[in-house]
Amino acid sequence: MKEATGELNMTVVTVVAIAAVAAFFYAFVWPGIRNSIIASTNCASAQCEADSCKITGGTRKCDKCYYGDDFKEGPITCTFQDKTGEE
Question: What does pTM read for this prediction?
Fold first, then answer.
């Protein structure tokens, strides 16, 4: 009977540990991942004002980008990895 109780205790400890890791991920890690995915999706379909973009070292950063069906959402800041305008 002692062995069965010990195995039950280890099962409970394992389940609690898995729940704690899942709660940590959901509370602290997932919001950052979710926001990154949303920003990436919005920037992929955004139109940016040309005068709001600066190019440095192969990176184009635009401060005034608009997205959505009618491009009225925003402005947001988008960063693109490209060589546009560089020689």
Answer: 0.67
